[in-house]
Amino acid sequence: MFEALSDKLSGVFDRLRGRGTLGEADVAEALREVRLALLDADVALPVVRDFIARVRERAVGAEVLESVTPGQQIVKIVNDALVEQLGGAGAVPVNLNAAAPIPILMVGLQGSGKTTTAGKLGLRIQTRERRRVLLASLDTQRPAAQLQLQQLGERAGVTSLPIVAGQTPVEIARRALDTARREVFDVVILDTAGRLSIDAALMDEVRAIRDVAAPAETLLVVDAMTGQDAVNTARAFNEALGVTGIVLTRMDGDARGGAALSMRAVTGAPIKLAGTGEKLEALEDFHPERVAGRILGLGDVVGLVEKASETLDEQEAERIAARIAKGKFDLEDYAAQLRQISKMGSLSSILGMLPGAGKLKAQIDDSKLDTAILKRQAAIIGSMTRAERRAPDIIKASRKKRIAAGSGTSVQDVNRLLKQFDDMSTMMKRMNKLGQKGLMRHGLAALMPKGGAPMGGGRRPF
Amino acid sequence: MALGFFNRLKAGLSRSTQKLSDGITGAFTRRKLDDAALEELEETLIAADLGTEVAARVIAAFRRTRFGREVTDEEVKTALAGEIAEILAPVARPLEIDPAHKPFVVLVVGVNGTGKTTTIGKLAQHYAEAGLRPMLVAGDTFRAAAVEQLQIWGQRTSAPVIAGAANADAAGLAFEALTRAAAEGADVVLIDTAGRLHNKSVLMEELRKIIRVIRKHDPSAPHATLLVLDATTGQNAIQQVRVFKEMVDITGLIVTKLDGSARGGIVVALAEAFGLPVHAVGVGEQAADLRPFDAEDYARGLVGT
Q1: Residue pair A238/A51 in contact by the 8 Å Cβ criterion
Q2: FRET pair for B213, CA 20 to 30 Å: which of A33, A254, A415, B223?
Q3: Is there a contact between A346 and B111 if contact means CB atoms under 8 Å apart?
Q4: Can you give the pTM of this predicted structure?
Q5: Is A121 in the same domain as A211?
Q6: Mean pLDDT across the stretch A18-27?
Q7: Under an 8 A CB cutoff, do A233 and B5 touch?
Q8: Is residue A53 part of a domain?
Q9: Helix A114-128 to helix A145-156 angle, to the nearest 10 degrees?
Q10: A434 and A329 share a domain?
Q11: A253 close to B (CB below 8 A)
Q12: What CATH number does residue A247 fall under?
């Protein structure tokens, strides 16, 4: 399902290699795959339709450049259009050009991450912009919601409005603004209760809050895992309030984040921030180009590099990468890799981030290589002699028996490991080959950074 | 980027979404069920989050039996709902509290913000009304004020809440709770956990630890491990369920926020892929807003009858 789009497209276009321009029929066939990729990434159907129509216009008759295949050419056109529609290159900052105290209103469905985001945003504005921030929770619906924001404020070192029981959200909003004026705060972040877009009473309430607060920013907070309903939610909130910006939360998950495209298309409001973790600092600028690659299943290469660089021992990775490149990957390297991988998280999630790794991931799933087995495998390799690790071919029946006994496993386990190592070597070779073709260049190279030339931020993943 | 492109896109959007919101009603008032009609039907399912593959399969089955017939709006909806209800019927199984286990231990897990704590509050109410003695365990020691949130639910439902210090070890807390539950004669222990994204292996490992520790008290526990799933979730729910199942062997699902505009079609895909029971659905923020999962009702909701 998550097979990379470019793999599929190169399948579609294999027989078309060398043609000068993209014909209508070819484009139509390719766009069917693009349509599925977008839908599988949770881009809402009406948004997909319009997007495909736009891309079709651009793609038909486009010149295929010398150096790329027609499939890659289409992916490029699609990717460019996606980046454009997600907001173009670069991030849009939160608007703080208003008279202090500047009200920022946070709205969204239940559980989308409004309160956490309010705390993170307060911290961000306070540390980056050096403005005094006041947090105020208007959530009188969910038990302990006001307390949650207060505690977040304490953790972040951001002042929060004292809680007064029994006040209505509109009253709290007034009190927050009065307090901010009196005590000279620059920014007031108003967190609201989660509400369903079809809940008329609560939508009226948030409109009343908006009228009282006259916010400089009305930020719609949306979970990156949201499905097709993203359009309904975005439209309802936008019609009721006039959304000025979107915050996409849980971008540290492995959802492909098609909701971003739906939201942006329906509201026309820029996606300003992305929530990327549980820490209070984990609120970042939104990068359309990264999310475009993710939606298309091209992999979030930059995200992978970041994740890798957090946990990987770079020198070790570099050494292994060099050995893979030379085709000298042996069991010692494999053991070293097992250690690194178990540090990084499950194999599936790592491979999910790699461009073009869809098939490899399927192979790994097939061979049942999960994290639990990694430990046992490390034990088996630990029971081998150095000579055996370097040249696994010499491991025959009696050596296998000895290794199994030494590692507390069975001969079958040893066999399975050797088979998997074989598969792995084959995969490595394949990844290398793909790398030379260009598709994987940034993937594997990014996983194992080499000296001074890691991934450039703006380079496209194909 | 040219603003013109964007405005055109928006105009197009409002047109096509208008059409979509009319749903099947507009598309199927007395017409022949031909390729175009089936395609529209398939898109309606996709727009309800069934996913492209499952939508295609449902429509393929539909095509075999009904292609080319003259059908009314009502017939199409009823038949399609029937088709989907058939997929859902095997997973519509309530959570049975086995009195042989006293206390019956329920571990509640899920990604952030799906409604775990609220669901526990509702479950507590449900069991209290059924004459059982529930006990709540505030195992979300990470999120700000999660403990207080559960304590308020405890007051509302008159169920005791076991809580530790902030950032306390959730596994140790669960163990302590089970000891107390046994001493105080609780029938059901509902353990809340911090929300965690399934791709964070360290956090998933933490969840496994909670289970290991619970088993030191009672080797047969937890007797149910429930994944709380937000109905607005898209295709990522499949990965969510897969990883949680692999890591903590979830035994059933509770689908929340079905009172919104999301239709929760992902449940159909999950039923096909995993066959895990769906015990209940959440339809509001009040204690009584937890309903049994009914395959036919759910299917009708999906196709919009």
Answers
A1: no
A2: A254
A3: no
A4: 0.77
A5: yes
A6: 73
A7: no
A8: yes
A9: 30
A10: yes
A11: yes
A12: 3.40.50.300
A84 touches chain B (CB under 8 A): yes
Q: What is the pLDDT of residue A462?
A: 35
- Give the Å distances, CA to CA, from B275 to A72, A338, B231, B245: 38, 33, 17, 11
Q: Report ipTM for this prediction.
A: 0.87
Is residue B110 annotated as involved in ligand binding? yes
* Tokens of residue A71, six digits: 């499939």
Chain B contact set for A119 (CB, 8 A): 144
- pLDDT-wise least confident of A253-257, B14-18, B228-232, B292-296: B14-18
Q: Point out the domain boundary residue: A26, A52, A85.
A: A85
Q: CA A435 to CA A431: how far, in whole Å? A: 6
Residues A152-205: tens digit of each pLDDT: 999 999 999 999 999 999 999 999 999 999 999 999 999 999 999 889 999 999
Domains, chain B: 3-91 (1.20.120.140), 104-293 (3.40.50.300)
pLDDT at A14: 61
Judging contacts by C-beta atoms under 8 Å, the chain A residues touching residue B53 are 1
The whole-number average pLDDT for the span A279-288 is 91
The three state secondary structure string of chain A is CCCCHHHHHHHHHHHHCCCCECCHHHHHHHHHHHHHHHHHCCCCHHHHHHHHHHHHHHHCCCECCCCCCHHHHHHHHHHHHHHHHHCCCCCCCCCCCCCCCEEEEEECCCCCCHHHHHHHHHHHHHHHCCCCEEEEECCCCCCCHHHHHHHHHHHHCCEECCCCCCCCHHHHHHHHHHHHHHCCCCEEEEECCCCCCCCHHHHHHHHHHHHHHCCCEEEEEEECCECCCHHHHHHHHHHHHCCCEEEEECCCCCCCCCHHHHHHHHHCCCEEEEECCCCCCCEEECCHHHHHHHHCCCCCHHHHHHHHHHHCCHHHHHHHHHHHHCCCCCHHHHHHHHHHHHHHCCHHHHHHHCCCCHHHHHHHHHCCCCHHHHHHHHHHHHCCCHHHHHCHHHCCHHHHHHHHHHHCCCHHHHHHHHHHHHHHHHHHHHHHHHHHHCCCHHHHHHHCCCCCCCCCCCCCCC
Whether A94 is in a domain gets the answer: no
Domain that holds residue A163: 102-298
Partner residue opposite A46 with nearest CB, options B17, B149, B197:
B17
Do A293 and A206 belong to one domain? Answer: yes
Number of independent structural domains in chain A:
3
On chain A, the residues whose CB falls within 8 A of the CB of B259 are 196
Residues A66-94, buried b or exposed e (16+ Cβ, 10 A)?
eeebbbbbbbbbbbebbbbbbbeeebbeb
Residue B121 assigned to a binding site: no
A216 assigned to some structural domain? yes
For residue A17, the model assigns a pLDDT of: 52
- Do A120 and A15 share a structural domain? no
Measured between CA atoms, how close is A229 to chain B, in angstroms?
5
Residue A248 and residue A121 in one domain: yes
Long-range contact list for A6-10, CB < 8 A, 24+ apart?
Answer: A6/A71, A6/A72, A6/A75, A6/A296, A6/A298, A6/A355, A6/A356, A6/A439, A6/A462, A7/A356, A7/A358, A7/A359, A8/A33, A8/A37, A9/A33, A9/A34, A9/A71, A9/A72, A9/A74, A9/A75, A10/A69, A10/A71, A10/A72
**Best of A40, A139, A155, A232 to disrupt the B interface by mutation (most B CBs within 10 Å)?**
A232
Segment B266-291 mean pLDDT? 95
| Nearest chain B CA: its distance from A438 CA (Å) | 28
**Based on the domain organization, do A290 and A335 belong to the same domain?**
no
The verdict on a CB contact (< 8 Å) between B257 and A258 is no
Between A439 and A149, the more confident residue is A149
Mean pLDDT within A64-87:
79
